[in-house]
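Progress note, sequence design subtask.
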């Protein structure tokens, strides 16, 4: 994925996140720092600031994966049944 596509995806997720209610849980900075600590990663402060800025949008994008209740029990398109 090129940087252009990643930036567009983050921008779209941020736009969609603005319409979603806030989620319960830790604030984005606390969550990002905890996740980085668990992964034993030590990025620079400006990189952490970027991750914090995109955290809500990333969470919204994950929530959108489950936003279509009708698709919950459907089989993925990669399955093929020779019986049909």
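Output:
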């Amino acid at each position: 994925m090129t940087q252009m596509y990643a930036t567009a995806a983050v921008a779209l997720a941020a736009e969609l996140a603005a319409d979603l209610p806030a989620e319960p849980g830790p604030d984005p900075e606390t969550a990002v720092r905890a996740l980085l600590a668990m992964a034993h990663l030590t990025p620079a402060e400006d990189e952490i600031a970027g991750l914090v800025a995109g955290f809500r949008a990333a969470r919204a994008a994950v929530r959108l994966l489950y936003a279509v209740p009708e698709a919950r029990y459907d089989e993925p398109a990669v399955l093929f049944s020779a019986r049909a």
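Residues 33 and 54 are 13 Å apart (CA to CA). Work on this subtask will continue into the next period as scheduled.
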